[in-house]
Amino acid sequence: MAYYLKMNYWKNGTDCCGWDGITCDKMTGHVIGIDLSCSGLQGPIHPNSTLFSLRHLQKLNLAYNHFNHSTIPSKFGWFANMTHLNLTRSRITGEVPSQISHLSKLVSLDLSWNFLLKLETPSLKRLIQNLTNLNELFLDEVNMSAVSPASFKNLSSSLTSLRLYYCGLIGRFPDNIFHLPNLQLLDVRYNYNLTGSLPNYNWSSPLKSLRLSRTGFPIDLPNLISHLKSLKELYLGECNFIGSYPTLLPNLTQITSLDLSQNNFGGQIPWSLLNFERLTYLDLSYNNFIGQLPDPSSNKSSKSQLESLSLSNNLLNGTLPSWVYTIPSLHYLYLDYNQLTGYIGEFQHNTLVDLDLSNNKLHGPLPMSISKLVRLRFLVISFNNLSGNVESKMFSNLKSLLCVDLSHNPLLSLNTFTNATDILPKLRVLHLSSSNLSEIPHFLRTAEYLGRLDLSHNQIKGNIPTWLLEVGKESLYYLNLSYNSLTSIGHFPWKNLDILDIRSNLLQGPLPLPPLYTSFFSVSKNNLTGEIPSLICNLNYLRCLDLSYNHLSNMIPPCLGNLSDYLVDLDLQNNHLNGTIPTMFSKGNYLRSLKLNGNQLEGSLPRSLVNCRKLEVLDLGNNKINGTFARWLETLPELRVLVLRSNNFHGIIGNPKTKFPFPNLRIIDLSHNEFHGLLPANFFKHLKAMMNMNAYKGELKYMGDRYYQDSVRVAMKGFFIEIMKIQTILMTIDFSNNSFKGEIPNSIGKLWSLKGLNFSHNNLDHMPPSLGNLTNIEWLDLSSNKLTCEIPMQLADLTSLAILNLSENLLVGPIPRGNQFNTFTNESFNGNLGLCGFPLTKTCGDGDDNGQLPRPSSTIQEDDFEFDNGFHWKVVLLGYGCGFMFGLGMGYLVFSHERPKWLVNMVYGEQRNKVLRSKKNARGRVG
């Protein structure tokens, strides 16, 4: 917003009627109008201001100023002749004074966009009762959560415009509003709990603009269109439509502005129902539309008056039609998150203000016409396949550009060096992640207003240039330099920095400290040394502190407990920290994730952990912590992941002491400790989250938040899977490498959602048939025990089972046949001298298995997969079930033997292709 300081040109001793912003009555000389909008006014409006001596004032406009969140003086009620009052976006607060209702001649009242302003039912009723001449009432974003919508039922019949956008209204909107004889504009958008009904008959209204997006009104669109003959603007985003798409869509050729976003509409966009010669605004984003954009001749797009087009977040494909580049009126074009292909053409006009083509499949060079879009503010073409070189001078004429995002175009190169000093002077956001950069762009030298800078996943080496420390000193709040090769970064001068991500570089030396107001700080996967300085405890606004995978030593500062008012995620894993875990967890803390894995911590668990009522992830594996199993952990209501692997815990687990222990636990790893005794049947019986048969329904979710996501390592026969993003549906139990004895409890069979179970390397002697109830299980390891029973035939029903290891036991009898058991090889059963049948060469002697059956075509051959680090993994454990283990998605799995060394795409990559080729060859041999 540009300010024009009109009062600077007022001069004492001159006639005020000649001052800018002042209007006087030509007959009497009385001041009747004041317009000081956008004048940079600051501070409160004092009740003793000379403003209130202007009793003849009729029009007052103080919009777009900063009144320091002061209240509206009651003396505004003195302006008996006032017809127009505008205080929009003026930073006022408190309750609207009842004296405003004394302005009985008001024609227009605008208090909108003051979100700290409150209007309650008594004041609203008086206002509506007394302002009988009102034509315009604008209360957007005024807090009316305590107002009954029924209070609006007595609005003046002279009303032409009513705007109540995002007011927090709750309840039923009065029906009679829709019958007001002069109402032309009604806007109640974003009142999520506002309901009502539109008239079904005898509805004759001059309404030109109806805006009901994100409300609870049931919408009968054909009926609505048939009644509102004057309707030009229709906003129905995320509404409750009556009928099924597309039959609910009538002819919309009279409409000039249309919003049908977020309604789950599918199929082809009904272009024939739209009139592109009239339409100026079209928003069909966040639906499921398919197909291509129309040819110009099909709907006369060449004559379009379109100013704004949003089709983002659909399933559109094909190339961009020529009319996209030739509409002279087009200002805003949003086609992001589709499946569009082909080149980006040359724009014929310089009218574009916003351009977003991100997250498509576009390729080729960036069009040269971009350099002529002098009005452009937002340029976002990230996550495509653009190629070629981009010179910095392309942006030299784009003085209005606020945001540039060309990230994740792997074949695109940006020449960042320039001698120009005035490129992108207004730049606020620059995202060039994965853009083949080898240095920080030089044109940033003059970006004094820069707010967001993302240069992650590039090849930037060495030190941060000193000139960058002068950029955006007051404005920079987001800095992401992760996944580069930086060796030194110096200090951080940006006092308003909120997000600082410098993980996965080559930083050396002591831990650098971020600015005081930082909320997210990640410096993981560097080469930092020394201790964690106690000064870090002065960062009172930290929500996430990630110092993992460095070489930090000494003790954990106890003062970290001082951050409990804000700290949510604390990740110190894989360092060289020693000593005990401090007793630093105070009551009422917000800690969600605590990871101390892979250090040299000792002593017992601090009992103060019981205060972490919001804790979801507790990973203390690979330390020297001792003591018995901390049963008080079962009282943590949100705990989902508990990893105590490879410590010195001992004793029995025992039965739970609380009524609902571990109600949300999904992953528990107690492996490689010294626990003994029987497996606790009652413990497993209460793992409610693992019994949820609906766990795999609904939207896929991950643990963590936007900036920090939890990971976990899961062990399977000598190697680890590191899951970089934990899906909430992942449920595993690992009690391996302890000294448990006796039977595997029947209660295990009730954990229907279990994906992985590892009881290997114990002294267990019996497995129950109830294991056959684990219909979602994908890996099962009971090896190296003392199991003396037969393999339950029910295990053959586990069609999701991909990995099975029953080796090194005392099992007897025939191996079950069918489903996944037809895919397992000898190594799954070795070391059980009493077993017989396929795939072993030993037959059972009953005629059912002569050992000569051909190997099923789906069996993976016993070839070794050899990886770059020399580690061998025999894939003979794998069946061909394709479930969670192979559905996590590329980039989320890291297979490692000792530590994470490579991303595994093997199911989707070259190794998988080898397996598929071997399968195909096997089928050829068998058939």
From TrEMBL:
Its record classes its membrane topology as: Single-pass type I membrane protein
Q: What is this protein called?
A: Leucine-rich repeat-containing N-terminal plant-type domain-containing protein
What SUPFAM superfamilies does the annotation carry? L domain-like, RNI-like
Output the Pfam families linked to this UniProt entry: LRR_1 (PF00560), LRR_8 (PF13855)
Q: Which residues cross the membrane?
A: 871-895
Q: Which organism is it from?
A: Fagus sylvatica (Beechnut)
Q: One GO CC term of this entry?
A: plasma membrane
The Gene Ontology biological process annotation of the record reads: post-embryonic development
Record's keyword terms, sorted: Cell membrane, Glycoprotein, Leucine-rich repeat, Membrane, Receptor, Repeat, Signal, Transmembrane, Transmembrane helix
Classification via SMART domains: LRR_TYP
Q: Where in the cell is it found?
A: Cell membrane
Q: Which family does it belong to?
A: Belongs to the RLP family.
Transmembrane as a keyword of this entry, yes or no, is yes
Enumerate the Gene3D superfamilies for this protein: Ribonuclease Inhibitor (3.80.10.10)
